[in-house]
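Consider the tokenized backbone below.
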């Protein structure tokens, strides 16, 4: 595993690389935006796909339960959560599942709680479907983001559903067990359904431990998981919805039955299973590299602390939430300035109002490239 190897992803239908012209107006930027990694997938995954591609027929797929079994073993080993295969529903992706959850667990006009800033589809799943976004803004302190508990409790009575992002994108918080317990208990008290998006669960930095919301003994939690972020296979699709409670599972199933979509294909199903069964060494080697890349950004920030860019190191994900508010630029001007400097980041404003003046930097790329990007950003130095 050579994480330092630069892989040319141009002309591979890569959103991150080939989408630059559309998004940034130029191909002359290092793209550090959308959340995939510039690293090769585990060799076993690639080999399995190559072998399957050598078979000349690509007919309909039959999932034989191997993917679900692999998922159960992975989650019990890595996160101590004992999932039963029958709790699992496969789904094409986590974003479609966010939309499905809003459909299944709420009605038009209902309030849906989110903790902002947050991954943009959390907003759109709610507003596109005619529900109301109820924001519980996270509070930024010197140590990073924390929950405004008084506000959380105050708004719960106007909500029917809570979309929890754990670990949190973009602020990189790995919620602690007491924080999670408190959120789940308060939701139970107020009859609010909890749906936890745990797509980043495996990407814990510097020895952090993910706490699985479904493993805390609180009944009725719906959890979205996937190998896509973990093993860098999001382009293939396929994720899972874990629902222990049989009644909720039944509700999910009957809605899905009325909204048929193709869940998987020969490649996505195979990659899902092989990643979880044969990808562990790869991930164990990746995490220290990501942690070291994160440290590079932290060191770079230290050189600028109190200055024009700030940030608190993420505990999880390969995303760094950078605060450029001191530059006094609005989102578009900030984006234009960064593009001119040679980098393409995710614009903070798309993560909610609190994101104005912020940018999200994806540090899952070879270290030399990351350092290059940071040098480019030094051009912003007033
Ligand atoms: C919190 C979160 N949920 C979901 C997704 C995307 O999930 P999918 O590609 O399975 O639709 C992302 C991608 O960045 C994410 O950060």
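A designed sequence for it:
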């Amino acid at each position: 595993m050579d994480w330092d190897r630069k892989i040319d992803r141009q002309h591979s239908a890569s959103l991150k690389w080939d989408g630059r012209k559309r998004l940034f107006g130029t191909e002359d930027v290092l793209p550090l935006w959308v959340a995939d990694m510039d690293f090769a997938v585990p060799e076993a995954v690639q080999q399995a796909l190559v072998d399957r591609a050598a078979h000349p027929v690509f007919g309909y797929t039959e999932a034989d339960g191997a993917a679900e079994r692999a998922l159960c073993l992975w989650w019990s080993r890595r996160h101590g959560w004992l999932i039963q295969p029958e709790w699992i529903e496969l789904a094409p992706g986590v974003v479609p599942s966010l939309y499905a959850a809003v459909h299944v667990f709420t009605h038009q006009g209902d309030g849906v709680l989110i903790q902002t800033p947050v991954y943009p589809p959390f907003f759109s799943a709610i507003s596109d479907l005619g529900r109301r976004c109820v924001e519980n803004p996270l509070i930024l302190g010197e140590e990073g983001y924390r929950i405004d508990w008084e506000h959380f409790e105050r708004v719960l009575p106007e909500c029917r559903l809570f979309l929890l992002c754990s670990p949190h994108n973009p602020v990189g918080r790995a919620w602690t067990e007491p924080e999670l317990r408190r959120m789940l208990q308060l939701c139970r008290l107020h009859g609010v359904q909890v749906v936890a998006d745990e797509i980043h669960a495996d990407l814990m930095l510097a020895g952090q431990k993910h706490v699985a919301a479904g493993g805390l003994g609180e009944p009725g939690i719906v959890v979205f998981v996937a190998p896509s972020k973990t093993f860098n296979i999001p382009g293939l699709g396929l994720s899972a919805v874990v629902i222990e409670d049989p009644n909720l599972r039944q509700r999910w199933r009957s809605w899905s039955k009325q909204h048929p979509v193709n869940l998987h294909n020969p490649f996505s199903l195979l990659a899902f299973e092989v990643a979880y069964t044969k990808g562990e060494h790869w991930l164990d080697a990746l995490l220290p590299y990501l942690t070291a890349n994160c440290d590079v950004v932290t060191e770079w920030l230290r050189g600028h602390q109190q200055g024009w860019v700030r940030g608190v190191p993420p505990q999880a994900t390969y995303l760094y939430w950078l605060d450029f508010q001191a530059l006094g630029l609005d989102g578009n001007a900030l984006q234009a300035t960064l593009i001119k400097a040679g980098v393409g980041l995710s614009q903070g404003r798309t993560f909610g109002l609190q994101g104005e003046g912020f940018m999200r930097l994806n540090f899952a790329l070879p270290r030399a490239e990351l350092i290059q990007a940071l040098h480019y950003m030094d051009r912003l130095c007033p």
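The mean pLDDT is 96.
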